[in-house]
Structures are given as structure tokens and as C-alpha cells.
From TrEMBL:
Source superkingdom: Bacteria
Keywords assigned by UniProt, alphabetized: Membrane, Transmembrane, Transmembrane helix
Protein name (database record): DUF3180 domain-containing protein
Organism: Actinocorallia libanotica
Transmembrane segments: 38-56, 88-106, 118-142
Length: 156
């Protein structure tokens, strides 16, 4: 599995933002105000991925605190890497969705409902960005360290 490319994440954000912005032109007046529930949900997911990444990295690198822990299951590490990659893609799409929403309501901030929706969508965009970063961190933590013996062989 290859590492997540930032260009793909940016493309997902841009495509989702453009799609939502265009879609809202026709249906925004029929929608209810956005709820705040996505903000804490995304932040808790980001926190969970950061904690998992730190613990997994400590186990992989045999840190002192993790020495008493069970050995790392290679299949579990692969699953965590896949989770990080999938979370990064999903969070990039969510970032685009709420960024598109914020851009759509931006011209109408003098009205109470669009102002509320702008604040919620901006906060959710930031939360989705945090989840994207946490997912990339989890994916990075799943990398296997290079073996010093292999480095010596490559130099010869």
C-alpha cells in the first residue's frame, strides 16, 4: 500500500466543495439549520486516531513504556494503515462538503440562519481538517522502521 498523496486529498476537497456549492444554489432555502453534532464527532475521531497512532508507533519502535506490551500484529498494523488512509480520504471529502457550504452562505452573513450555518460549517471544516491530519499521522505511524543491517548492505 502506498502513502496517501496530498494532491489526491486536495482534489477530493476541491471536487466536494464545488459540488456542494453548486447543489446548494437550488436547495438551500428548503434546508434546516446545520447541527453542531459533526464538530465533536470529528474531533473525537481525530483524538482516537492520534492516540492509536502514538501507541502503535511506540510498539513498533519498541519504546520502553511499550516493552511490556504484546508484540505488534502485522495484520493489525496493516489494518490501521488502511484505516488511516480511508479516514484521510473521507475527512478530505467532509472538508470539501462543509467548505462548499461555508462558501455558499458567505454572501448572506447579515441573515441569522446563514450566519449560524456559516459558523457551524466553518467549525466542521476545521474539525474535518483535524481528522485529516490525524489520519495522515496514523498512516505515518504504521510505517515499519528501516533495519540498520539493511542500510549497511545497501551501502556496499
Amino acid at each position: 500500500m502506498r502513502a496517501t498523496r496530498p494532491s489526491l486529498l486536495l482534489a477530493l476537497v476541491f471536487a466536494a466543495a464545488l459540488s456542494v456549492w453548486a447543489l446548494l444554489k437550488g436547495v438551500y432555502s428548503q434546508m434546516v439549520p446545520l447541527p453542531w453534532t459533526a464538530v465533536p464527532t470529528l474531533l473525537l475521531l481525530a483524538l482516537g486516531e492520534i492516540v492509536t497512532g502514538v501507541n502503535l508507533r511506540n510498539k513498533i519502535h519498541h519504546k520502553a513504556a511499550a516493552e511490556n506490551a504484546r508484540p505488534v500484529d502485522p495484520l493489525g498494523v496493516a489494518r490501521m494503515a488502511a484505516l488511516g488512509k480511508a479516514s484521510a480520504h473521507a475527512a478530505a471529502v467532509l472538508t470539501g462538503v462543509f467548505l462548499g457550504f461555508a462558501l455558499h452562505v458567505l454572501p448572506n452573513l447579515d441573515l441569522p440562519t446563514p450566519r449560524h450555518d456559516f459558523v457551524v460549517s466553518a467549525a466542521t471544516t476545521v474539525s474535518a481538517l483535524a481528522l485529516t491530519g490525524a489520519a495522515l499521522f496514523l498512516e505515518w505511524c504504521c510505517r515499519i522502521p528501516e533495519d540498520p543491517e539493511e542500510k549497511k548492505k545497501e551501502r556496499r
